[in-house]
Structures are given as structure tokens and as C-alpha cells.
Specification:
This protein is mainly alpha-helical. It contains 28 helices and no strands. Among the domains are: 168 residues, no CATH class; 85 residues. The radius of gyration is 26 Å and the shape is globular.
Length: 624
């Protein structure tokens, strides 16, 4: 009996996923439903799927209890959202609830927290509960952190019944834009694009020293553009690239670290950026394409910096590339993959012409269907699986966005954002660098316990006012916070992407995290660079952007050489420190100090070239 019910429920979950994808595709082509209809429908389906996909720990021992609990929670959550859908306009005008409505709203919040615990982790649920407690007991808190306090009814109305809580902008973005992009990525995957991209990356990068690691960088960069998830990158490309790296002579810890840093780039790489690009565009009040343009060069330098680190590490360790028999052939791989570039090119062109993200992605999806039909790479089963996967991949994105809405709603009520800005202002004493430093520390710490999209949403509300008050461009302030929130994925002690890669590599999780920080050291400097030189975000003239691009490339090269201790040969510690010092000077704002740093770096490189030439001559003479 239980097995029959479980099978029926699994089929029901699949039906829900496919139905949600179909409805989302329909709204992408023909327009969205009414605001609250779209959002409640999306979150209800996602939450119900989350309950039945992520079961209770006692599911194996007590399947009947697990099934009963999940059914009750699912029915309550559906009932709460039906109530909200029927009454939200009245609640918006007169924010008071009767007892049944209050109980349903409270039940919806509790159920959402339970789904959060199952799908994202206990830490996020606890943080949300602490914010709710702070909102309720604010009048008992002494000092500047205290506030007047709010009763249960007012809190439930704020976070459940309006558009400034659970059903705010983050969920709206998930329900309209993010899901269509993930469906597009799922169709690309089922059409065979993932394997083609991996083979193309192998054909291009595999032959060089540290080839398998460079394949991981290229493959993760290409996949990151489409998945926007570091965990998905580590699980898919890492399953292939990590064993390749280990066979080439890399230690498991290093292989896991490189894949973790490469996969973490998925959150920074347009067009998806883990849903942050769409949310950021809404918060800034700018076009989504403008966020993608601003994020393009920092994402590019994420992979360039890691490429330099891997190349110098391979030189330091004397690691070779892949043998010829294991290399994919470029032209066959290119010919197989060129068809998949057509939908991606259409997506880029439509967004550059300032069409909406939904419109651009919808018609890119249509182009993909035509291409897949022409090349016969997508079966009916593949279509069904893509529709299923597109919706189920939304669970770890939509749920954190929904609970982030709870946090944002409580921040609006309590005014805590302005209070944190005052604390940062006191600690920095008016110094822009110190302000950035403290924002960095807070972003990394909070990011360790939250998904990047959640920590970014919270900290953007809390910290952006402090940054923009010092003259920092709003887009630079938002990206600065987001970058350090996403770096928590590879920063110990809680570095989920590094832990995922470590599990695949069979390496120690914490050591892999520490190694990931070393390989990602360049990434911790990039946010400072684009804050002090916003031309890196295409803010300003093309000449200014070109100058900063060259400066960033040279500075990253010097920092990677110093950090890995290799240029043409292994470097001693004084030389390594000089390379690192050159990178700091090159990154410095202005033109005089960077010019001095570049000149000093050039002199050091000439010395290294001459030293290597003399060593080769000596070796030849000795051999002769």
C-alpha cells in the first residue's frame, strides 16, 4: 500500500514539475498572469515538490508517517496560498486578518521554513527564525538595535500577505525569468550540449601543461553560463575533470580545489548568475542586460586568474598535458557544437537589443527546439526530462528566495538596515577602504550560512546605502557585495562547493577549502579593483575600460606567479614577494603607481628570462 502511494506521489511530483515548466514557457511567450497568481502558483508547486522530493530522515524507517506528514503539510500550504490568492487585494488595503487567515498564514511560514531546512539546510531556517524573533521582541532589546516590536498578526501580514515579504521581487524573478533560463539550460543539456562543450574544452585546453585542470576551467565556464549554479557545475563537470586531474599527477586536494574555484564562477557568469542578475536589475532599476554587461569582465577575470594559477602550478610541479590519444579533435567537436551556439547567439543578440530577458530566452528556446529537431539530438523522452529537470532545479533557488523575502520584510519593518550602516560607518571612520573591508568580512561570514542569492539580497538592503554614501557607483556596490557572498562557497569553514568537489575527489573537505582559497586568491582582489576602477564594469569610456583591462591582466599575472612561486622556473621567496608587491602596486588606483609597478615587473621578467637562458647555456656546455 505504502509503495503504491509513494509511486503515485512520485508520478504526481513529476506531473507538477512538467506542468510548471509548460505553464512557465506559456507565460514567457504570451505574457504572465496577474502578479500574485504567478507568484503563489510558482511557490506552491515548488514547495509541494520540495516536500516530497526531500523527505524526512525517518522516511525509510517510518514511510507511513513521512507520507502522512508531507500530505498534511502540502494540503495546508496549498490552502494558505488559495486563501491568499482570494484575499490579497483586501489585505493590501486593510492589513488585518481574521483568525483562520492568521492561522493559515502562520502555517505557510512554518511549512516554508521546514522546506528550507530540508532543501537548503538548518542554518538558513534558524537565521530566518532569529530575524522573526528580533521583529517580535524588538521592544525588549536595549540600545540602538531596539525597536518598538510588532505583534504576530502584523508580522504575518507583512511577510505572507503582501509583496514585500515571501512573494516579493525575489520570488517574482524566479517565477518569471529564472525558471525559463533553467528550462533553456535543461533542454541544452538533454540535447547533448554539455558533452559537446566538454569535448570542445578538451580539444582546446587539454594538450597544454596542467591540461585536465584547464579543461575543468573551460568546461565549468561554459556550463556556468547556462546553469548559474556552482554545485551543479561541480557535480557535472567535476565528475569527469577531477578524475582526469588526478590521473595527470595532481593531488586529490588540488584537483578538488581547482574544480571548486572553477565551478564557483557559475554564480558570477552571465546570463543567469544564480538568479542574482535578475534580482539585481530589479533592485537597481536598470535593464537586465546592463547587469550582464557589467558582470562580464569580472567573470572573465575569474577564469583568467584561475588559468594563470593552474598554469604556474603545473609548471612548478612539472605536470604535462593530456596524451594525444585522450584529446578530442577540435573540428569534429566544433561542428557538433556549432548548432548549439545558434540559440545562445540569439539570446545574446536579443538581450543586446534590449528585449526583455523572458522574451529573449523564450525565443532562444524556440530556436533550440528547431535546431535540435533539425539535428535530431532531442528525443521525446529528452523533452519530457528537460521539462521535469527545469522545474526541479528551481527548488534550491526559489525556496531561498522566498525565505529571503521574510528577512527583507522584517528589515523593512524594523529599520535594521540603517542601523548596520551606522555601525559600519563607525568602524570605518570615513575610510572607503575600511568600509569595503568590513563589508567584505560581513558578506563572507553571512554568505557562509546562506545561499549567495539570499546573502546578497539581505546585505544589499543593509550595506549598499553605506557604500553609495561614499560615492561608490550603485552597480559596483551591488557587485562588490555579491562577489564576496559567492566567495563564501570556497571560503572555509563553510564552503559548500569545495566540500562537493572534495567528495568527488576523495579528499579532505577542509584542506580542499583551504587549497581553493589559495587557487582563488586573485578573486579576493577583483571586487576592490572594479570599485576603485569602475571602467572594468564598462562604466566610462572604451579607452578607460581597455586601460583597466590591461592593468588587471598584468596585475593578475603577477599575483598568480608570486602566489604559486613559478614563472619560467621555481621562484625563491624574495622574488615571489616582489611579484606580489608588483601586483598590489599595479592594482592601485591612478596611473603613476601602476606604471611603476609594471616597469618593475618587466625588469624582473627580463632578469628571469636571462637567468633561464644562462642556465640553459650552462646545462648545454656541461652536457657537452
Amino acid at each position: 500500500m505504502i509503495e503504491t502511494l509513494n509511486k503515485a506521489i512520485n508520478n504526481f511530483v513529476i506531473f507538477c514539475a512538467v506542468a510548471l515548466s509548460v505553464v512557465s514557457i506559456y507565460t514567457a511567450f504570451f505574457g504572465t498572469f496577474e502578479t500574485m497568481t504567478q507568484r503563489t502558483m510558482h511557490l506552491t508547486v515548488i514547495c509541494v515538490m520540495g516536500l516530497f522530493i526531500h523527505r524526512l530522515k525517518s522516511a525509510k524507517d517510518k514511510p507511513g508517517l513521512d507520507l502522512t506528514v508531507n500530505l498534511v503539510l502540502a494540503v495546508l500550504f496549498v490552502a494558505a496560498n488559495v486563501f491568499l490568492l482570494l484575499n490579497w487585494k483586501e489585505l493590501y488595503v486593510s492589513p488585518f486578518m481574521d483568525t483562520p487567515g492568521l492561522l493559515l498564514g502562520l502555517a505557510a511560514i512554518v511549512i516554508l521554513l521546514e522546506v528550507t531546512r530540508r532543501t537548503v539546510g538548518l542554518s538558513l531556517a534558524i537565521i530566518v527564525i532569529l530575524f522573526l524573533i528580533y521583529t517580535y521582541f524588538g521592544n525588549y532589546i536595549p540600545g540602538f538595535l531596539g525597536h518598538r516590536g510588532y505583534d504576530l498578526e502584523r508580522i504575518v501580514v507583512q511577510v505572507f500577505a503582501g509583496t514585500e515579504g515571501i512573494y516579493g521581487i525575489p520570488v517574482a524573478v524566479c517565477a518569471t525569468i529564472v525558471i525559463i533560463f533553467l528550462i533553456f539550460g535543461a533542454f541544452l543539456d538533454k540535447a547533448g550540449a554539455s558533452q559537446v562543450l566538454l569535448e570542445l574544452a578538451t580539444s582546446v585546453a587539454g594538450r597544454y601543461r596542467g591540461g585536465p585542470a584547464k579543461v575543468a576551467i573551460a568546461a565549468s565556464g561554459l556550463m556556468g553560463m547556462l546553469s548559474g549554479s556552482s554545485a551543479a557545475n561541480a557535480a557535472t563537470t567535476g565528475a569527469i575533470t577531477i578524475p582526469m586531474m588526478k590521473k595527470s599527477g595532481m593531488e586529490p586536494v588540488v584537483a578538488g580545489a581547482i574544480e571548486a574555484v572553477a565551478s564557483a564562477g557559475g554564480y558570477k557568469t552571465p546570463p543567469i548568475m544564480g538568479a542574482v542578475a535578475f534580482v539585481m536589475a530589479n533592485m537597481l532599476g536598470i535593464n537586465y542586460a546592463a547587469v550582464c554587461v557589467a558582470a562580464a569582465l569580472p567573470a572573465f577575470f575569474h577564469y583568467v586568474g584561475l588559468f594563470f594559477m593552474v598554469d604556474f602550478y603545473a609548471g612548478y610541479k612539472g605536470l604535462a598535458g593530456l596524451p594525444p590519444e585522450r584529446l578530442s579533435r577540435f573540428w569534429p567537436s566544433f561542428k557538433a557544437g556549432v548548432f548549439f551556439m545558434i540559440p545562445v547567439a540569439i539570446l545574446i543578440v536579443l538581450m543586446s537589443l534590449r528585449y526583455t530577458a523572458m522574451f529573449a530566452c523564450a525565443y532562444s528556446l524556440l530556436a533550440l527546439w528547431l535546431v535540435a529537431g533539425f539535428s535530431r539530438t532531442l528525443s521525446l523522452q529528452g523533452i519530457f526530462q528537460a521539462l521535469r529537470d527545469g522545474a526541479t532545479r528551481m527548488i534550491p533557488i526559489t525556496i531561498p528566495c522566498a525565505v529571503a523575502g521574510i528577512i527583507l520584510g522584517t528589515l523593512t519593518m524594523t529599520g535594521a538596515g540603517m542601523k548596520l550602516s551606522e555601525v559600519i560607518g563607525f568602524l570605518s571612520q570615513g575610510s572607503m577602504f575600511l568600509t569595503l573591508f568590513w563589508v567584505m568580512v560581513i558578506s563572507i561570514i553571512l554568505g557562509m550560512g546562506l545561499p549567495p542569492v539570499v546573502s546578497y539580497l539581505v546585505l544589499a538592503a543593509l550595506e549598499v546605502p553605506a557604500l553609495t554614501a561614499m560615492g561608490i557607483l550603485p552597480i559596483a556596490a551591488h557587485l562588490f557585495i555579491f562577489y564576496f557572498c559567492s566567495l563564501s562557497l570556497i571560503t572555509p569553514p563553510v564552503c559548500t562547493t569545495a566540500f562537493t568537489a572534495a567528495a568527488i575527489a576523495g579528499a579532505h573537505p577542509m584542506k580542499t577549502g583551504l587549497e581553493a582559497v589559495r587557487f582563488g586568491i586573485v578573486l579576493y582582489t577583483l571586487p576592490y579593483l572594479f570599485v576603485y576602477s569602475p571602467a572594468l564594469l564598462f562604466e566610462g569610456s572604451l579607452w578607460a575600460t581597455g586601460y583597466v583591462f590591461i592593468k588587471a591582466t598584468i596585475g593578475i599575472f603577477a599575483l598568480a606567479a608570486g602566489a604559486q612561486g613559478f614563472f619560467l622556473k621555481n621562484l625563491n621567496w624574495p622574488t615571489r614577494l616582489l611579484f606580489i608587491a608588483c601586483s598590489i602596486v599595479i592594482f592601485w588606483p591612478g596611473s603613476l603607481l601602476p606604471a611603476i609597478g609594471t616597469a618593475l615587473l618587466a625588469v624582473m621578467m627580463i632578469i628571469e628570462f636571462k637567468g633561464r637562458k644562462m642556465a640553459v647555456v650552462s646545462l648545454v656546455e656541461h652536457g657537452a
